[in-house]
Structures are given as structure tokens and as C-alpha cells.
Amino acid sequence: MIIRYIANSTSSSLYWLPIYFYDEPFNQQVIISIVEIALYILCSQAVNAYVHVTLKIRLFHRNLYILSIPVFFLWYVLIAGKLIIIAYRLDFLKIDIPIGEHTDIWTDDIGKMLNVNNLNGLELILLSGFLQWYYMYSFIFVVLAMVVERTIASVLIDNYESNTRLLIPAILVVTSQFLSVSVSFALLFHKIHPCDAQLPWIISCVLSLMACVFLKLLNESFQREIKNPVRKRHFTISQQFQVKENLRAIRLGYRLVITVLSCIALYGIGIAALNYEIIPPIFCHFVENLLFLNPLPIGLTAILFVPQWRKQFVKSYLSFNCLKFNQQILPMETVECQRKKLDIETDLYFKQLTRSWT
């Protein structure tokens, strides 16, 4: 949607918002809004479950949690922006001129823009548009920041635990949020061409995939060296844990990148189909909710492909037995041996970690 603010006969300003308005009967809009809100409530329960499980079963470095967990809470900011639009659609919030139908995410046709002589009453619509841009690009830049953090951890494996403290995640958070806010404002005030707006997520995805390949090769090299009985380099228990953690994060990262790219591809295909009128405007509801409901596929991918999280999720939130996962049954002696070995390694890891921090 493009809002064209006409200041006078010679100058005008454009505001680009990733929001949609429909020319639908009021009763239909009410029903659709109720269904959407119900889906958002369901999605919020899923988000809470994901955060609870990942915090209860901590499998990754603290810095990764500092970077990743806030993204799920930003989803509530996104939904707040969507609720503002629902309030306008249902006339809880009103402006002096009819908004009309706007199902094109971008257009250069003045006739398809919302042309106004003042912005009175549109402030919340502009805020909603900014919040949606901000969420999209925060997600993109935070994923890149997480990959950068794991790259730094792998390159500085000798002293990462003892020297980084909170400096690295703080720098990455500030940088990613600065980029997110800057790009969001630039898009809102239409300072970036629609084609150029695709560059941040394309570049971020390419860099993330390249970094994942580098991390996989580097940490597999570390793992082979660790298993080599005649190795010359000494790896502490904390460093061995870090190598395992990096490889686990990379395996999960591949699946998450595929899931995110699939969501972006579906969203892009839907937007293109709407712009070229291949599908009717009613399908725009499905297209835009690919964004608002994206924690469902992304969170499920993370939960289901990490056995420890999957087990805890099923135990805590699924009380029925229709969903079962094949698990290898080990003899009791083997289980006890593995448990004792894990306890010893864990105790040693934390002792070394404590010494490195003091």
C-alpha cells in the first residue's frame, strides 16, 4: 500500500506500507478478523511453548539465546501492528476519507494510491507499517548476527569462553537493530526502490549459507582432530563442547534457512500473483498471514529436529499419544554408562569454564 501525501500542488511525499485493505462486505471482514485473531492466539501459545522449551533445555551458548529469543517477542510487536489495521478495517478507528481497497504491496499508479491532503488519523497506520517492516528486517539481520556469532566462536575457539563476555552479543544486537530500524524507516518513507529492498534479505541469506558451509568444514576439522589419538593440539572439555554445539547449530541452521526461504518464496509468489491479478484479492488474506503466522513453521522446524526439545515439547504440551516418534531402545546398562559419562563431562566442562572466567 502506498500513501501519497499531497502537501501542495507542487510537492508530495510517499509512504510505503506492507499492509492491505479490502473491498469486502463488513460482515465478511468481521468473520475474517475473528478467524485471524483466533489464529494469532494459537500462534502466541506456540511461541510461548517454543521459548519455554528452548530455555528449559539449553543446548546452545548463552550468546545465541541473547540473539535469538528476542525475535520471538518481537512477533508480539508485529501482531500489535496487525491489530491496529484490523481496528481500521472494522471502523473502530476511523479517518475522514474512505481508505478503499489496497491489495498491491507497491504501485507507481497514482490512482491506486491512497491520496490524502493531511495525515490526520493515519498516524497509527504509519506506525503499523513501520512495525511490520521492522519485524521483517529484524528477523533477517538477527539470523545473520547469529551466524556471525558462531563464526567468531569457531575462529576464536581457544579463548572465546574466557574473553568475550557480553561484548560480542551486545555489539551484534546493537548493529542488527540499527540496520533493522534504518532500513524500516527508509522503506516507510519510500527512500528505497522496491527492487533494492530485496537486497538485504538476499545478501543476508547468501552470506549466512556461505558462513554455514565454512563453519561446517572448520568444526568438522576440529572434530577429526579431537578424535585423533596422536593429535598435538590440546582441546579442553569446554572447547570440545563448543565444537559439538557448533555442528548441532549448523544442522539446525540449515533446516531453519530452508524453512525461512520457503516462507519468503511463498510470500513473494503470492505478492506477484496478486500484482499480476493471477489470483483474486481475497487470497491476499492468505498471503499476508504467511508473515504473521511464520513462527509456526519456523518454531516447529526447530523443535521437531532437535530431539531434546522435541521430547520436552511432547512431554509438556502434548498429552495425547497420537504423535509418536521412533526412539532407539537401549539396554539399561548402556543408558547408565552414557549418563555417568555425560555427568562427568558436564562437571568437568563447568569447572573449566568457571576457572576461565575467574
UniProtKB/TrEMBL annotation:
Record carries keyword Membrane: yes
Any one cellular-component term (Gene Ontology): membrane
Domain of life: Eukaryota
Coiled coil stretches, renumbered: none
UniProt entry keywords in alphabetical sequence: Membrane, Receptor, Transmembrane, Transmembrane helix
Membrane topology: Multi-pass membrane protein
A GO biological process held by the record: sensory perception of chemical stimulus
Localisation: Membrane
Pfam families named in the record: Sre
Keyword Ribonucleoprotein: no
Chain segments annotated as transmembrane: 30-51, 63-88, 134-157, 166-189, 201-218, 252-274, 286-306
Protein family membership: Belongs to the nematode receptor-like protein sre family.
PANTHER family noted in UniProt: SERPENTINE RECEPTOR, CLASS E (EPSILON)-RELATED
Identification of the protein by name: Serpentine Receptor, class E (Epsilon)
Organism: Caenorhabditis elegans
Gene symbol of the encoding locus: sre-35
